[in-house]
Structure formats: C-alpha cells, structure tokens
Amino acid sequence: MSKIKTVFQCQACGFTSPKWLGKCPDCGAWNSFSEEKQDTKGARSSPGNTGADPQPLSAVTGGTEKRSRTGIVELDRVLGGGLVSGAIILVGGDPGIGKSTLILQAMSHIAERAGTVLYVSGEESPEQIKLRAERLSIHSDSIMLLPETLVENILATAREQKPAALVIDSIQTIYTEELTSAPGSVGQVRESAAKLMMFAKRSRIPVFLIGHVTKEGAIAGPRVLEHIVDTVLYFEGDRGHPYRILRTVKNRFGSTNEIGVFEMTDSGLREIANPSELFLSERPLDVSGSTVIASMEGTRPLLVEIQALVSPTTFGMPRRTSMGVDFNRVNLLVAVLEKKAGIHLGGMDIFLNIVGGLKILEPAADLGIVAAIVSSFREVPLDSRTFLFGEVGLSGEVRAVAQSEARLKEAAKIGFKRALIPRGNAERLKGDFGLSLTGIRNVEEAIEYIRA
C-alpha cells in the first residue's frame, strides 16, 4: 500500500528537503519552503511507446502556422501577428492590473468570429464575471463560464464543448487528483500546466493561462511553468497612471520584447495606436531638465520624455533616485559627467523619471539621461523640437545604436525638427528624413550643444 510522507518543498524552484530550511540551497530564495504531502508508491508508470518513428527534417510537411486575429491589434502585435492554433499562452501581472479584463475583451472578439469560448474561473463566481462583462459592454451567448478547479473536469468539459479557445483564470487555483498537495503548490501548478499543454497540442485549441506574480514581479510558482508554455506575456503598469504595457518575454511564434500599449478606462482597456504622441501630449515646453529620447521596444519606436531634477543636497549624503531607468546606470553616467566633462555633481541630489510610467532598459537612453541632468544642473532648457539618442561609454564617447532610421522616421512623423545622434549613426544614414541631424562623438560635444 502507498504511504503518505511529508516533505518541505521550495515554492520557487521545487527543491525538496526532509526538514524546513530558511534559505533554499538550490535557488537561494528565502522563506520559500512549505510543507507538502507526497505519495510514496513510486513514480507514475511511463505511457510507453507512442508509435512515433524518427523522420528526416526535409520530409516534415508544413512549417508555417496559420494565425487568427484576436480582435485586439495590440495583443496580436505581442503574439507575433495573431493567435496560433494549439498555442498555450501565460499572462502575468500584478493584482488588479487588468489581466482578466484584457482576456475577456479578447474572448469576446474570438467568440464573435470563431464560435464558443470556454472561460474557466477558479477565483471568481459567474456573477462576478457577469458584472465585469456588463461594465465592458460584453453580451455574448458564445462565452461559456465554468467555475471549476479540478483539471480533469476542465479537460473533460473542453473535449465535449470543443471551444475555439480555453481560458484558465488562474493557473494557481487549478489542481489535479493525482497529487495530494494543495492547489498553488509547485507540484500542482507544474502537473496542471503540463496536462493543459498536452490538451492544447493534441486538440489544436489555444489555451490562455492567467498567472499570479510574486512581490518581486515574477510569475508565481515553479520556473518550469514558463518553460512549458509557448508565450509569456507580462502586463505592466503604474497604479498612478492609466497606461498599461503588455510585454512579450517569451514567444515561440514571434519576436520577444514586443510591447502593446493600452489605456485603462471605465469601459475597459483601450488600445493606443500612437503611444509616442500620448506620452508627449502633456510635455512642458522650454523648461530645464526635460529631454525627449527615441527608444525602441521590439520593432516599435517610442518617443518618451525624460525629466531630471538636480538640486543642492541638504543632507550629508546626496540622494540618487531614478524611476523607469536602471539606478546603477544613472550612477555610472553621473560618474562619467564628473570625470570626463568636469561637471561636479557630488553635492547634488539627482532625481530622474521616465514620464508615463514606462521602463526604458536599452542603453540608447544614455544620451537623454545625460542631457536631462546637464540641462537641470545648468538651468538651460533644451529646444522643445529636438530629440536625441545614443549610448554613452565609460570614456565619455557616444556610441552608435541599432535601428536609427526607425527612430528618426517616428520623430519626423510626430513633428520634431532636430536630432542629436551618435556620429557613427549619422555617417551611415542615407537620408535626413526632413530633420536637422547633428552627429556627436562624446559627451563634451553634447554639453556644448545644450549650452548653444
């Protein structure tokens, strides 16, 4: 007869220990061990030979996946052009950020075009989902609601209904009878996701999984969950701003680091077709410490405003605060300004912010950060019709960046007239796109341009 024994399992990586540990020796997470019950009758039997034989790559037919539209252009963008049959998609984000709202809006469009959609809710009752649907003006008989948490019952219903898409909200509430641990544990999340993945691949029905995130912002549960799925989307946004960013982290059917931009309204999420104009709509003109950079998010150029505030410190230790950019990167650029440009910032508080709640990670924002800090320090405003981009090295040189033509075209379309760009990019351009281009080699030349 099988016996049930108790072990302690890390909820971050799945490492097991016979006793509780404060720190996981495998992944290094603190206070991540919880008590789990395991069946000791042995591993499950292997499914055996599936009858598949090896075949040469040249003999494999297909190679192209037919995509279907979700009805939301920004969602199709981050998915790589549309929804692939049999794909399993994981959507994560902070509580209340709009994950369920986005998926419900997408399912409404899919139900109108492709047929029945099965929406499985393990957290909310059908009445709660109905209230959200009424707020979004969704009235569809093709969206079937199923309040269920047992994965075997969910799959049985899905095989019977044969829906155009299956939604699991959320994967942390789903469990399987094969394990005795509680829902949300490492084993339950892993096994439930694996069963849903096999169902998606065999039935060619796309499956959406909504996942919780930890306080660090990562998908809760084992890391293997992100390896099982085909696409991982993160829904980001600041509670103080109405804008939401849907970012691709992993995509087997398209490029990664694509973003979709939305605005949260009373009637749901609204797509932003031209986010650059939106982020610059309230930009103050002719003020010091404000610059505009041309950043790339995947294949999409974005023009965003960087604001800097430099003021004498009233404490013994000057403060450095950055929002939307890497804190260590800001400190590095401040050191370059002090060493190579002779601008003494040791007794200054420096506050830096990316307007709109965006997070800019690419080094092409370096020149904009430097210009904003110098503009605020010198109390010299930068021309409101000038934008800039470029990577700054430790020697003070300004290095060329990729996709400069896409950045320049986007800025010219919005109405900018002048650009401060790396000399390497300026020498390789085949046209000026109607802009007055100034190529610079180092931060000293950039500072001279700001003074002029």
From TrEMBL:
Region listing for Lon-protease-like, in residue ranges: 349-452
The alphabetized UniProt keywords are: ATP-binding, DNA damage, DNA repair, DNA-binding, Hydrolase, Metal-binding, Nucleotide-binding, Stress response, Zinc, Zinc-finger
Q: Which branch of life, at top level?
A: Bacteria
Positions of short motif RadA KNRFG motif:
250-254
Q: Which GO terms describe its biological process?
A: recombinational repair
Residue intervals of the RecA family profile domain: 64-213
Q: Listed GO molecular functions? A: ATP binding; ATP-dependent DNA damage sensor activity; damaged DNA binding; hydrolase activity; zinc ion binding
Q: Where does ATP bind?
A: G93, D94, P95, G96, I97, G98, K99, S100
Which terms in the GO cellular component ontology are assigned? cytosol
Q: Does the keyword Zinc-finger apply?
A: yes
Q: Does the keyword Methyltransferase apply?
A: no
Show the segment(s) annotated as Disordered: 38-66
The job of this chain, per UniProt, is described as: DNA-dependent ATPase involved in processing of recombination intermediates, plays a role in repairing DNA breaks. Stimulates the branch migration of RecA-mediated strand transfer reactions, allowing the 3' invading strand to extend heteroduplex DNA faster. Binds ssDNA in the presence of ADP but not other nucleotides, has ATPase activity that is stimulated by ssDNA and various branched DNA structures, but inhibited by SSB. Does not have RecA's homology-searching function. Plays a role in repairing double-strand DNA breaks, probably involving stabilizing or processing branched DNA or blocked replication forks.
Which NCBIfam families does this one have? sms
Query: Which comment does the entry carry about domains?
Result: The middle region has homology to RecA with ATPase motifs including the RadA KNRFG motif, while the C-terminus is homologous to Lon protease.
Q: Give the UniProt family note.
A: Belongs to the RecA family. RadA subfamily.
Q: What protein name applies here?
A: DNA repair protein RadA
Please report the organism this UniProt entry assigns to the protein. Candidatus Nitrobium versatile
